[in-house]
Amino acid sequence: MPMIRNAVRKVVIPDHTGMFPILWNVLRPHNGERILDIGMGNKATSASAMAAQGLAVVGMDINPERGKFSKTLDIPVVACDAAALPFKDKVFEYCAAVFSLHEMDPTSHDAIFHEMERVAETIVIMEPLLRKDGLGGELDSLWFEAMKSAEKFEIYQPMEYWEALLRDLDFKEIDSILIDIEGDITEKSSTAMCAMMGDHFQKEGVSAKYLADLRKLAERLKKEGMPHSEVLLPIGRDDG
After folding, report:
1. What pLDDT does 27 receive?
2. Contact criterion met (CB below 8 Å) for 27 and 35
């Protein structure tokens, strides 16, 4: 059966809290279905949203320190490489990488996608779209250059990139959604975001130049404001 590749749909939401409801509306998951969260991260935000939806969540991160969040969420967490998942074939209904793949070496993405497809019937990707203009473009560029200097990754890809990786797999259907968050980021949120970036820069040991550039951008954000980044939500699934 040929793969069904649906046209990209754009969905506008008032704020970031509407992102996961869009995903649940597409997937229609049943209570207790199993989902693997690839790169659950520091705050386990995605794993928390999945658990709140009634899914049986398994967290995964290459950093074993992430396991401390499992005590709060009461979920198992496995420390491993996303390109070599220690699970049997098709043991999950879903496998999701939520705002995590842009922090991984792009040369590993193909192997990661094949592993996600191996262990799950449906895979979900949620990624920010690169901003090329305005303060958003400057901020994204600063992220990229600072992480590159520390031999880390912060590389945002277009929808076509993620769709191409999905097309290489054996899915029956690809569904792609572009999420547009209305309005500008609030001053409170932008201040918190820049503080988070500053902490991350210091943790990764980037040079003082990038921290100085970040402080300048933070001051401009207070005066000029900045739109939200659009969010990409490509989904590959076997259920058709």
Report:
1. 95
2. no
